[in-house]
Amino acid sequence: MVSHLELDALLEALVHAAGRLTGAGYAAIGVLAGDRTRLARFVEVGADDVTHDRLEPLPSGRGLLGVAHDAPRLVRIEDVREHPAFDGFPPGHPALTSFLTAPVLVDGEAWGMLYLADRAEGDFGPRELETAQRLAAWAGIAAGNAEAYARSERDRLALEAAVQGLEAMVDIMLAVGTEPDLAEVLAVIARRGRSLAVARAVVIGLREGDEIVVGALDGEVGTLAVGQRFSLRDSLAAKALARRGAVRAVSGDPVLERFEMVVGRGVLTAVTAVPLVHRDEVLGILEVVDDGDPPPELDAQRRRLIESFAASASVAIAAARRASDERMRTALRAQEHERMRWARELHDDTLQELAALTMELATARRAIDHPEARARLEHAMQRATRQVEGLRALITELRPLGLDDLGLAAGIEELAARFTGATGIATSLDLDDVQQAPRLDPDVETAAYRITQEALTNVGRHSGATHADIVVRQDGWIDLRVTDDGRGFSLGSPAAGFGLEGMRERAGLVGGSLEVLPGAGGTTIHARLPALLAAPDPTTEDQESV
């Protein structure tokens, strides 16, 4: 076996030997490229360094060399200048006279040519022809061994990559089946992806609207951390998603410079971004961070390996997210059901008892003439009334009965009135679309109500606003906007984190999205939710049929 590096050294030694054994003043071996029309390598002796530097990097294969390439056979010429195919020497090339070529064959196919010229003792004779043929045959054997070794090495590396890829996917699928949290599955994907790609770091980003959220990170990339958000605009991730394939950028590329403004200067040398797509749904991006100065080019095999891993990881992420979303939906439904149960029990039992007690105290007060006793009863009535009002507020906070009985518009109207009463911040409502529309799916109504509730809570706590607008449009989608006239905030500020993740989760779990539009003159929370209609009430259908 002869490796490529060993083959270069062997070819150089063979050229030196050919020159000595044949008496040639100039000797060379040219290795044909894959298309067999040009030279890929050229090893020569006989030209000094100055002359060599003046020549083209590789002979172009015209003239006599072209004849040798087109019909690889033993060729002997007494004076190259008299041959019909001779078209002159390149500038700076030493003048040659006698010329001898012998083909180097591998498995019967032309692999290269041995060139000999300017024999010191005159023309090349039969002995030199036999020597040239023998040396060319040895070169063919070495080349054949080298190519066989390269093929076996490629096969071995491909097999190793396939096994590693299979092991990685087994680990990931086990994580999907056993881990309760999407974050844990993403962490396994990042860890195995980094090992498979032999990279400095691997980043998993999940798409949320026009942003990428870092879901997992294995390795170090400056100050980058899980949970950070980045705009897709003019990013490497956006290029990969548009191409639906791997995209590579190296240090100095503007897309990396913008990223380094966040994670730290000089952090990135080379990054390969591969989209995570499942059934035409864009889930996010997998980014492989490499070291190297200059960075090594991403070879085809490694690119295929990374893209294959990303495709398999996409399936796992989609499955893990479905499971995580379903667990979250189940938990939220159970939570809302429990809230509804408590609200009903408090309304039907405790609130009614307190209301009845308040009426009895009022009756007793009217029946008693003693001033001190009347004052005590008045005080007790006031306390009971406050408890009734507090209990009503608690019931509404737990689960507004108007939302369940009358729908989204009634729930938001009640919420806005309570918000204004508690904060003094005026609200204006535009709910005509949902007031006139059929009832929505309970999960969608609950999501829209809770998003509005959390948005108003943020307005009351952080904005310094004097007015809030609530607009809900319905046209295939529920388009919900809560806008205030406060001082606004930066998405990077601590205030920005209050409840935003919860609102995004609520929207995402019903198939919608949420964006925050901050500005100097206020902030808008914008949610888009699918306008799924409620299932028909079987009780109502039975009554109608009767």
From TrEMBL:
Matching entries from Pfam families are given as: GAF_2 (PF13185), HATPase_c (PF02518), HisKA_3 (PF07730)
Q: Which residues form a coiled coil?
A: none
Enzymatic class: transferase
Per UniProt, which keywords does this protein have? ATP-binding, Kinase, Nucleotide-binding, Phosphoprotein, Transferase, Two-component regulatory system
* UniProt-listed Enzyme Commission number(s): 2.7.13.3
Per its UniProt entry, which superkingdom is the organism in?
A: Bacteria
Give residue ranges for domain Histidine kinase/HSP90-like ATPase.
Answer: 443-533
Q: Does the keyword Transit peptide apply?
A: no
According to the UniProt entry, its GO molecular function terms are: ATP binding; phosphorelay sensor kinase activity; protein dimerization activity
The answer to whether keyword Transferase applies is yes
| Annotated catalysed reactions | ATP + protein L-histidine = ADP + protein N-phospho-L-histidine
Which residues are in the GAF domain?
6-153, 181-327
Show the GO cellular component annotation of the record: membrane
Q: Which PANTHER family match?
A: NITRATE/NITRITE SENSOR PROTEIN NARX-RELATED, NITRATE_NITRITE SENSOR PROTEIN NARQ
Q: What is this protein called?
A: histidine kinase
The species is Baekduia soli
